[in-house]
């Protein structure tokens, strides 16, 4: 789980062009949108692409997205749950 | 206040027809050009797409260039003017031009550049001047008309031929798909169940001059503004669009009550239509009948502002309001009187608005000629 | 009507020049690295990193021109009239790469930059410009047209100040001239006309 969280932090920095940040700057429990990292709706869509492309997991709808993208930890949990279900 | 400019000729090419009259009649009869299409890997989607026989069979021209040529020739014919005349000012409007050439890596790839695309068209028409090109996302068409209005004031050109065109492309489809903004059914602007846009393709040409014909519709004034808020998300308050509308009202001394109807941008996305409702309310226009024509012809991008302005001018000429396709139930926080039935009456004054990516807004005030 | 260029920035492969003189670049090829310029100019605008290269250069030129001074006009009376040749073609090509049939992951963050006028939108956000705006395309800078159109907007009282210029980027080559146009002059002001813009562009 912790490895996945670290990996996701690096992915997010790369995919969302947060060059002014390091993985240590991201608190895996902090909100990603609004306050916290201050991401916007395009970032959310870009994260959906990231999950599909790299982790082969699909976020099905906006409501599910809201839950999944709460924090880095919630994304990691979502990926893990999907991967467990598929194996 | 600057002098009005007058529409002395026009043309529209969409799947609904190759003349303004054919398009106006089809829309009056509630006919839509939006059909279901299938494309891998996106799957089923709805769009308003031209038949291939609509394009000139000339291999030295791209489909879009041939569409521009056909539309300009017909508009010039309707105005009784010569396309080659050096007194003409040409203004092109396009958002993505020949973007489909990117995937083909074809020999025509130089025409990816809008300036070369426009030049190919005017050269074919034997016009020797340099065409101007506006590329301002979804407000390009209205902006191009605004630019013509502004430049015609100086008297350097006798008339402006303003032409807007964009094709349906996989590039743009995939882009809006990635934004989850393609409607799973034909777009339904301002409706409660609206779920995104339907893309369209087409071309519109409008010819403007400061010397009117007898029955001309005039463009009384123009304005543009920028939200300065977000490059792809519509403003949450509508203040940018409101700024441009208010500028138009102030310049002309009009009260909101003087505006008899609005042809809105009305893309069918949740946020655009909501933003427009807030802007209209802000300007005292929440009770003004409004339509969006995108349910008939889809979102034609750089052509949209020109095609929709021409149809709005025709509404004034024919004293007939066009219905807003796909609207059933109020779906904006400010309820708007969206036009759902054909109305006839004495219509003399209308607004055309547009808003787009990059935060831009543009507004025109159209009037049945005010005799001087 | 007398209009003046009171500030400007020229950013090209030859370096950066402003109304205050040349910006000293420690490395010759630094101008090809917008990120390095960001650090050099000590900017603090996290949004910068999310932009495509055309927009990055636009913001860099804007920062050199305005030097963090707030614009002394109401947002709605400031216009922005820009022009370029390639528009977003560089980003168009990158977005097209995400559309491969066997690797189809269209990027929303790239797509929103695939329009010529997005750089204008970014400048509007950065400097709170809300007035008249227009983006045109031409093969080479048409300074005659830019002057004509901008002057007409001033004459029609639609703007009281305007950011005008040529902004182009393709295949690593930035080519930008931004000028700030006002009705009042200071001692270093230049007349806003074709000759001034042409001489600043060299």
UniProtKB/TrEMBL annotation, chain A:
Keywords assigned by UniProt, alphabetized: Phosphopantetheine, Phosphoprotein
Q: Show where the Carrier domain sits.
A: 1-83
The protein's matches in Pfam families, at most eight in alphabetical order, are given as: PP-binding
Q: Which domain of life is it from?
A: Bacteria
Q: Which segment of the chain is annotated as a signal peptide?
A: none
- NCBIfam families attached to this UniProt entry: PRK09184.1
Q: What is this protein called?
A: Phosphopantetheine-binding protein
From TrEMBL, chain B:
- TM ranges are none
Gene Ontology BP terms: fatty acid biosynthetic process
What are the protein's GO molecular function terms? 3-oxoacyl-[acyl-carrier-protein] synthase activity
Residue ranges occupied by any Ketosynthase family 3 (KS3) domain in the UniProt entry: 2-368
Q: Which InterPro entries match?
A: Beta-ketoacyl_synthase, Ketoacyl_synth_C, Ketoacyl_synth_N, PKS_Beta-ketoAc_synthase_dom, Thiolase-like
Keyword 4Fe-4S on entry: no
Which UniProt keywords are given for this protein, alphabetically ordered?
A: Transferase
Q: Please report which protein family the annotation says this sequence is part of.
A: Belongs to the thiolase-like superfamily. Beta-ketoacyl-ACP synthases family.
Q: What is this protein called?
A: Beta-ketoacyl synthase N-terminal-like domain-containing protein
Species: Xanthocytophaga flava
Its taxonomic placement starts with: Bacteria, Pseudomonadati, Bacteroidota, Cytophagia, Cytophagales
From TrEMBL, chain C:
This protein is called what? 3-oxoacyl-ACP synthase
Q: Which organism is it from?
A: Xanthocytophaga flava
Organism domain of life = Bacteria
């Amino acid at each position: 789980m912790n490895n996945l969280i670290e990996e996701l932090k690096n992915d997010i920095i790369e995919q969302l062009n947060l060059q002014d940040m390091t993985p240590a700057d991201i608190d895996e429990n902090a909100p990603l949108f609004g306050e916290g990292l201050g991401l916007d709706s395009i970032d959310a869509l870009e994260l959906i692409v990231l999950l599909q492309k790299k982790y082969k997991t699909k976020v099905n709808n906006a409501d599910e997205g809201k839950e999944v993208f709460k924090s880095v930890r919630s994304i990691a949990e979502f990926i893990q749950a999907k991967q467990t279900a598929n194996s | 206040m600057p002098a009005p400019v007058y529409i002395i000729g026009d043309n529209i090419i969409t799947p609904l027809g190759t003349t303004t009259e054919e398009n106006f009649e089809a829309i009056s009869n509630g006919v839509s050009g939006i059909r279901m299409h299938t494309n891998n890997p996106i799957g089923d989607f709805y769009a308003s797409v031209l038949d291939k026989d609509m394009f000139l069979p000339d291999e030295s021209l791209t489909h879009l260039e041939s569409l521009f040529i056909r539309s300009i020739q017909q508009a010039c014919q309707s105005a009784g003017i010569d396309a080659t005349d050096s007194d003409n000012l040409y203004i092109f409007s396009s958002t993505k031009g020949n973007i489909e050439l990117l995937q083909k890596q074809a020999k025509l790839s130089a025409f990816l550049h809008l300036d070369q695309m426009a030049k190919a068209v005017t050269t074919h028409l034997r016009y020797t001047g340099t065409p101007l090109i506006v590329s301002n996302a979804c407000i390009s068409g209205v902006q191009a008309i605004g630019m013509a209005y502004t430049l015609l004031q100086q008297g350097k050109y006798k008339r402006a031929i303003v032409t807007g065109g964009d094709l349906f492309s996989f590039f743009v489809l995939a882009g809006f798909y990635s934004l989850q903004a393609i409607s799973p059914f034909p777009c339904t602007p301002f409706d409660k169940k609206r779920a995104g846009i339907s893309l369209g393709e087409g071309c519109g040409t409008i010819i403007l001059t400061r010397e009117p014909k007898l029955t001309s519709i005039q463009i009384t004034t123009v304005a543009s503004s920028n939200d300065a808020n977000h490059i792809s998300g519509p403003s949450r308050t509508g203040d940018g669009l409101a700024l441009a509308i208010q500028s138009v009202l102030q310049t002309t001394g009009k009260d909101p009550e003087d505006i008899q109807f609005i042809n809105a941008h009305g893309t069918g996305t949740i946020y655009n239509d909501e933003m427009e409702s807030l802007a209209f309310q802000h300007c005292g226009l929440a009770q003004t009948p409004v339509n969006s024509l995108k349910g008939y012809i889809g979102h034609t991008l750089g052509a949209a502002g020109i095609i929709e302005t021409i149809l709005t001018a025709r509404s004034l000429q024919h004293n007939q309001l066009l219905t807003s396709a796909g609207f059933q139930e109020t779906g904006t926080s400010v309820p708007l009187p969206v036009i759902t039935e054909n109305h006839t009456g004495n219509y003399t004054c209308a607004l055309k608005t547009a808003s787009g990516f990059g935060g831009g807004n543009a507004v025109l005030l159209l009037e049945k000629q005010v005799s001087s | 009507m007398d209009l003046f260029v009171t500030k400007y920035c020229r950013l090209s492969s030859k370096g950066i020049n402003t109304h205050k003189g040349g910006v000293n670049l420690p490395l010759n090829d630094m101008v090809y690295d917008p990120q390095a310029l960001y650090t050099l100019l000590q900017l603090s605008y996290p949004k910068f990193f999310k932009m495509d290269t055309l927009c990055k250069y636009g913001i860099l030129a804007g920062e050199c021109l305005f030097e963090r001074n707030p614009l002394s006009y109401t947002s709605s009376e400031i216009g922005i009239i820009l022009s370029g040749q390639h528009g977003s073609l560089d980003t168009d090509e990158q977005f097209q790469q995400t559309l491969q049939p066997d690797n189809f992951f269209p990027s929303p963050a790239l797509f929103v930059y695939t329009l010529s006028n997005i750089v204008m939108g970014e400048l509007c956000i950065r400097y709170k410009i809300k007035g008249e705006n227009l983006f045109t395309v031409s093969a080479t800078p048409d300074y005659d047209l830019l002057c004509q159109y901008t002057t007409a907007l001033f004459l029609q009282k639609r703007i009281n100040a305007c950011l005008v210029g040529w902004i182009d980027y393709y295949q690593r080559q930035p080519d930008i001239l931004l000028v700030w146009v006002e009705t009042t002059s200071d001692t270093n002001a230049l007349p806003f006309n074709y000759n001034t813009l042409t001489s600043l562009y060299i």
